Amino acid sequence: MMTRIEYEDADRGAATGWKIAAAALLGAAAAVGLGIYLARDQMRRHRRELFSPHPLRRLAALGYLRSHPSVDDLPLLRDYLAWEERPLLRKRATAVLESLESVLASDEVLESGDPH
């Protein structure tokens, strides 16, 4: 039979384990939240850089959009093509737009199962 002091010590040990687990869970949730925030910020920054006055930033934004295809980027790229004056960047944007359209079209075909 346990004395009251032994029982309270055992109870404190169990409570400490729960506190550690709760703190770890809270830390993991905070890390996931921070990751989501940073990913969204990165996406917004690259979309904004597409209309930057600096050509290299625009080129980097085009590379980002090419590697992360999204339906939301199609109108953005079309607006960019109407805005961009540099032939090299327009050519690159056209290639990115065509690449995005083909990737998204192939994804659509895979989802529907109908090639036509």
Specify the helix fraction band. Answer: over 70%
Average pLDDT number: 83
Question: Which structural class matches the secondary elements?
Answer: mainly alpha
> Distance between termini?
78 Å
- Stretches where pLDDT is under 50 for at least 5 consecutive residues are none
| Helical run tally | 4
The topology string of helices and strands comes to HHHH
Number of domains: 1
For the biggest sheet, the summary is: none
* Beta-strand share of residues: under 5%
Shape: elongated
Radius of gyration: 26 Å
Number of strands: 0
Structure description:
The chain has helices spanning 4-49, 55-67, 73-83, 87-112. With 116 residues, it is mostly helical. It has one domain (4-112).
Write the layout of secondary structure elements.
Blueprint lengths: L3 H46 L5 H13 L5 H11 L3 H26 L4
Task: Label this structure with key terms.
single chain, 116 residues, mainly alpha, 4 helices, elongated
Quick structural overview:
The protein has helices at residues 4-49, 55-67, 73-83, 87-112. The protein has 116 residues and is mostly helical.
